[in-house]
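Problem: given the chain below (105 residues), write out its structure.
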Amino acid sequence: MSQKRGVDAPAATAIVTRLEQHGLVERRHDREDRRVVKVYLTDEGRDISNTLVSSVEQFDQTMKRGFSEGDMDRFLAQLQQLIANAAEIGPGQGDRFGLLPKDGM
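Solution.
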């Protein structure tokens, strides 16, 4: 899980522990390989996840209202160019969040 999300293992463990303490996830050992621990949403976690997804989708639709797909594509390309320009300012100042395509634009 941590590798897919770009989070180191100790940080992922801490996040899962906090979510587990709040009753949002539960850990279960894999039936075939007891060394493997899988993380599952609880019913409450699933409800919150569904609410968050719905809220994000609604926010996204609201923010994009009045813009065509082409408008959004141009806007995102311009944002990527701004990030690339900011990267030239100095080390660590531009693409701190990994937003640029890996091929360098």
